[in-house]
Design goal:
The complex is a heterodimer. By secondary structure, chain A is mainly α. In chain B, strands 12-11-10-3-13 form a five-stranded mixed β-sheet. Chain B has a two-stranded antiparallel sheet with strand order 1-2. In chain B, strands 4-5 form a two-stranded antiparallel ribbon. The termini of chain B are far apart. The chains are: A mainly alpha, B alpha+beta.
Chain lengths: 437, 312
């Protein structure tokens, strides 16, 4: 087989196998359960959650922050690495862009799930006031979604043209790929527009990506609450987001490599590089964590110490230390060694990092709310604690499953590794063209 | 002095109607009255700057509640700025304020809008009871963060919530440092009376709306009738005084009126969490020279309850 044909053969989307079908069915079951739970919530109100007047935000909001955080990886891998001339990241660009699009869609939906009156969602556009950080969030998330979709789509144009040809024996599929390719034929003019568009989008997406997560941090930092009232919050969230996103890329590239046998394209080198990147990101995040916790602890104002004691020694301490040690310190130590950056260990560590990142958002959102300025009095004892109810968990798992389903479907129909770019990099595209011409 | 106080109190309540009357009569009417003096009997009216003037009775028309014709609950009463003073020295946690507030705002949840906290700054300082309600801040953090203009600040200083606008994001609750905002987590199980009449934001709780935020509204519906807020009139110990900052006068539940500036000066008034810069409209007088024993109030103290469950 010619190298070019082999490349397409390897990278063209494949039908779900048995495992794929079971996986999709599983996700659908989780999503259906979540829809049922959401119906309960819509009908009865947010009373079905563990939230009350003190713990007024809970797992929905921390899950929302997690989704926004994960979505930042699109800008990291596709934009920052691309613009800094890193060549090895090519096979990971599509994976990270797919993660970004799925996560940002689910971030938007999750915030609606948290609303007491989802039926009034359009009021945000009808009566929106620019001074509210929520409006900034709406603006910047929609902008980011749009740029992310474009940044996913543009590099796909040549791939769609390739797939149209490849699937010529399946006219329906071929027709769709053809339509999506926007008549891509690889002329000089097209290539020039294509390259400059991607470059422009890559530049554009960086400030917008910083924007979404900074604004998300500001949802908390614009209040007076101890634990949130911090000028560190914007960069602290950004640093954490890159950790979570890089972790997610590692996890997903490992799974995809295994299922689709992409060992020739996602090599040990990629794991090694991602591992190194993850160490760097973890260290930066650790640095921000030191700032975030140590300085208030040093000053120990009454409000801050009530909050910090709860985290360091109180009810949230097991979770807090598990997240800091298991989700940050151990990964840093393990990934410093080359052995730790081999695919399997890195996959396990990245899984820890992603799990840690999810719980980290939980302990950013909840404990603060349980330490208001005035003491908690005059409400049932149970209102002094918060833990999500089973229905709340169901809905939350539903959003996570939805994000995974979006990714699964995109990976089903899009080439996971950019075919055109890979061919160009390996110098086998020209060859093929001259042969077929 | 006493006379003065009475006058200023009366002024506070009747200003609205008189201003309205004067406006309706207008200068033309006054001029006309001078033209044919023998026309009819005269009535006395007081102008806004305190001058008594005579106007022919025939020119005076009863306007009923028309003084607030076109009164917009989002804009508030003109030329008013409401203020409350809470005298911590008098509070013995009788909780009549809370009871009255709960009843008149049809509060059926588990968190009252008006709460009496048991406070103690540090181990060696004396404990005291501190009633809190919405502080109606002049720089309200809740209003700042609301994405849809559901909670708003009126020209008369009152901060209200439009329950037909609120999308239930609860950002205002996170922003409020005084924890005075309450969410309707489920469909409020309110009595029928809560559902009478058309919804207006100036009587919060009538009705409460599932998935939206509620809080103390400073009772504009009572002010509109020239009455004091429910908590003020219900308090047996005259803890609360309510009034208009422009008139520099506040009135307590027994009908005594005080000069606000003097009261705050003499009794060293302060506001809660002043350092945050929220500029509340509620002032507190320190719990010094207390009239009542703190322990007395402990009889009523319930740590986990602020709304009595309706009897089934």
């Amino acid at each position: 087989m010619k190298p070019y044909d082999k490349l397409i053969q390897d990278l063209a989307p494949q039908k779900f196998g048995m495992r794929g079908k079971i996986w999709v069915a599983f996700l659908l079951v989780v999503i259906l359960a979540a829809l049922y739970a959401y119906y309960q919530q819509f009908d009865k109100g947010l009373i079905i959650t563990g939230m009350r007047d003190y713990a007024l935000w809970g797992v929905y909001i921390s899950n929302f922050v997690f989704f926004v955080a994960i979505s930042l990886v699109g800008s990291l891998v596709t934009a920052i690495l691309r613009l800094s001339g890193v060549k090895w990241s090519t096979p990971l660009t599509r994976i990270s862009e797919v993660i970004a699009v799925a996560a940002i869609i689910m971030a938007g939906l999750t915030i609606i799930i948290d609303m007491g009156r989802p039926d009034r969602i359009y009021y945000i556009f009808l009566h929106g006031r620019l001074q509210s950080p929520i409006i900034w969030d709406v603006l910047v998330i929609t902008t980011y979604l749009l740029i992310s979709i474009l940044l996913l789509y543009y590099p796909l144009l040549p791939d769609f043209a390739i797939l149209k040809k490849h699937f010529s024996n399946k006219p329906k599929l071929s027709k769709w790929y053809g339509k999506l390719s926007l008549k891509w034929s690889g002329t000089k003019k097209q290539t020039s527009i294509y390259n400059s568009s991607i470059k422009t989008l890559s530049v554009l997406i960086i400030p917008v990506a910083f924007g979404i997560h900074t604004v998300t941090a500001w949802l908390f930092a614009t209040t007076y609450r101890p634990g949130w009232d911090s000028t560190n919050f914007g960069p602290y969230f950004i640093a954490g987001a890159f950790v979570a996103g890089a972790g997610a890329v590692v996890v997903i590239m490992f799974v995809l490599r295994k299922i689709y046998h992409l060992e020739n394209y996602i090599t040990d080198l990629h794991f090694d590089k991602m591992g190194k990147l993850l160490v760097l990101l973890c260290l930066v995040y650790l640095y921000f964590n030191v700032n975030e916790y140590l300085i208030p602890a040093y000053k120990s104002t009454n409000e801050e110490s009530a909050h910090l004691e709860e985290l360091f020694f109180g009810g949230y301490a097991p979770l807090f230390w598990t997240v800091i040690i298991g989700g940050l310190i151990i990964p840093v130590i393990a990934l410093v060694f080359p052995k730790g950056r081999k695919p399997v260990p890195l996959f396990i560590i990245a899984l820890l990092v992603v799990l840690g990142a999810w719980w980290k958002r939980y302990i950013i959102v909840t404990p603060t709310l349980l330490h208001p300025f005035l003491p908690i009095q005059g409400v049932p004892e149970s209102w002094r604690h918060y833990f999500p109810t089973p229905l709340e968990w169901t809905i939350t798992f539903g959003t996570l499953a939805s994000a995974l389903l979006i990714m699964t479907l995109l990976f089903r129909y899009l080439p996971i590794i950019p075919i055109h770019e890979t061919a160009e990099e390996r110098g086998i595209l020209e060859q093929d063209k001259t042969e077929t011409l | 002095m006493q006379e003065d106080k009475k006058k200023s109190r009366r002024k506070f309540f009747e200003l609205g109607i008189k201003f309205g009357l004067l406006a309706s009569v207008g200068t033309v009417a006054v001029a006309k009255a001078f033209d044919d003096e023998d026309n009819s009997e005269m009535v006395e009216l007081m102008s806004t700057d305190g001058h008594i003037m005579q106007v022919p009775a025939s020119e005076v028309h009863d306007m009923g509640h028309k003084q607030h014709d076109g009164y917009d609950p989002r804009v508030g009463f003109p030329d008013k700025k409401f203020v409350m003073v809470v005298d911590l020295a008098k509070c013995k946690n009788a909780l009549k304020c809370q009871e009255s507030c709960n009843k008149n705002h049809y509060i059926t949840g588990e968190n009252a809008w008006l709460k009496v906290y048991k406070m103690q700054e540090s181990e060696k300082t004396a404990p005291y009871f501190m009633p809190t309600l919405c502080q109606h801040c002049d720089k309200p953090p809740c209003v700042k963060v609301c994405p849809v203009d559901a909670t708003f600040k009126r020209q008369d200083g009152i901060v209200l919530i439009d329950n037909e606008r609120c999308i239930g994001c609860r950002f205002c609750m996170a922003a409020c440092p005084y924890s005075t905002r309450v969410f309707n987590w489920n469909e409020p199980d309110q009595p029928e009376a809560a559902h009478s009449g058309a919804y207006t934001p100036d009587h919060t709780g009538k009705p409460s709306v599932k998935g939206t935020v509620d809080k103390c509204d400073f009772c504009p519906h009572k002010i509109d009738m020239g009455e004091l807020p429910h908590c003020v009139s219900a308090c047996p110990n005259d803890v609360y005084s309510f009034g208009d900052i422009y008139e520099d006068a506040v009135t307590n539940g027994s009908g005594q009126t005080f000069k606000l500036s003097e009261l705050l000066k003499e009794r060293s008034g302060h506001r809660l969490l002043e350092g945050l810069g929220t500029e509340p409209s509620v002032y507190y007088l320190p719990p010094t020279e207390r009239l009542v024993e703190f322990e007395e109030g402990m009889e009523n103290y319930t740590e986990f309850q602020s709304v009595k469950k309706s009897e089934e």
